[in-house]
Amino acid sequence: MAYSDFSLNQVKKVFGLTEQTVQLFSNVATLEPSNWLEETLSYSLKLALASSSEKARSEFIIAPILIELERRNPNKLSIYSGENLDVDEEQGLKGECDFILAKSPISLTMQAPIISLVEAKKGDIKGGLGQCIAQMLGAQRFNELEDNSITGIYGCVTTGEDWQFLKLEGSCVFVDNHRYYINEREKLLGIFQFIVDSY
Fold first, then answer.
1. Which of 33, 57, 78, 192 could lock 102 by a disulfide, CB 3.0 to 4.6 Å apart?
2. What pTM, to 2 d.p., does this model score?
């Protein structure tokens, strides 16, 4: 078993997790997108939305948002795309992650993961929650093994157009009761910045 094999019910049952729907980001300040991001998305959104490929959405929508975040936080944030996070093979906490954001300068090896971001397969946000939570558990376990003081791990499942955020604290998964959309770029950037600042 690997991260991508977990459904929401499976991951909750296997790891004894509880789930709560809450408002995660009620008072988060918005951030104005840079001219670079707006110009990039004005071209790349057309390309992504004309394709049914998850890879296209990843490259044309998700990556520019994450690059914008890294540009706003120089030497504080690393983006890992398609990296394996193998921490517990017996429990199924292994496999490739779409994106992992780490609170550390860019390096060849992953350090201090804080956010797991999963591309929703076939545009199904709910269907990606199990995989995302499993990767959040993997990040939590990684930090424990590395003696990082990071406790809460954030997650996000996205189609590129829709964005659903989560937070894992101990054995409780908090699911944001609000879903965000790509036309709310100021809010999305504000949420990602809030997450980075909270560490």
1. 78
2. 0.93
